[in-house]
Amino acid sequence: MASLNVGNLGEYLREQRRNARLSLRQLADAAGVSNPYLSQIERGLRKPSADILQQLAKALRISAETLYVQAGMLDEREREALETRSVILADPSINERQKQVLLQIYDSFRKENGLDTDAPEAAPEGAAAEPAAGAGPGEDPGPGGRAGGGSGAPPDSH
Questions:
Q1: Rounded CA gap, 84 and 119, in Å?
Q2: What is the dihedral of CA 94, 100, 105, 110, to 10 degrees?
Q3: pTM of the predicted structure, to 2 decimals
Q4: pLDDT at 35 exceeding the cut of 90
Q5: pLDDT tens digit string along 69-95?
Q6: Distance of CA 110 to the CA centre of its chain
Q7: How many Å apart are CA 3 and CA 43, to the nearest integer?
Q8: Three-state secondary structure along the chain?
Q9: Residue 53 CB burial class (10 angstroms; 0-12, 13-18, ≥19)
Q10: What is the Cα–Cα distance from 149 to 158, expressed in whole angstroms?
């Protein structure tokens, strides 16, 4: 079987597996794929789907986006943008509205720098895509860390 053009994905996976001190069989079991299939991926004979790459990344405890870049499914800059968004969305110290404001600022800077005109979907399902009225990035989050107090009323004067 001829080798497919999947970049250095197979070599990269093998290196990550060895760094994690996992055998081929252990990684295949952890990722829920067959041992022969994983072997073929590592040898560049098979091109795995995004779902399989995500399972492998989880088993290796690495970023799925990194594997997508290695497989040629994702541009390096797109990966960096997605990882930045993921970090913002995963931060438990800020609320959902604050996360969306940060993402809007991030998108505007990327657009200003000519890097990104169509930002990938940033809001998790069910989250508001736009910040609440009066919750602009220039507003000072008063006591409790919530700009405007969340009630729509003007913030208390200090």
A1: 12
A2: 120
A3: 0.52
A4: yes
A5: 888 887 777 778 888 888 898 899 999
A6: 16
A7: 8
A8: CCCCCCCCHHHHHHHHHHHCCCCHHHHHHHHCCCHHHHHHHHCCCCCCCHHHHHHHHHHHCCCHHHHHHHCCCCCHHHHHHHHHHHHHHHCCCCCHHHHHHHHHHHHHHHHHCCCCCCCCCCCCCCCCCCCCCCCCCCCCECHHHCEHHHCCCCCCCC
A9: buried
A10: 13
- Could you tell me the two tokens for 122? 């940033």
CA 86-30-3 angle, 5° bins? 85
Q: CA-to-CA distance for 51 and 33, rounded, in angstroms?
A: 11
Q: Record the tokens describing residue 125, joined without a space.
A: 């399902």
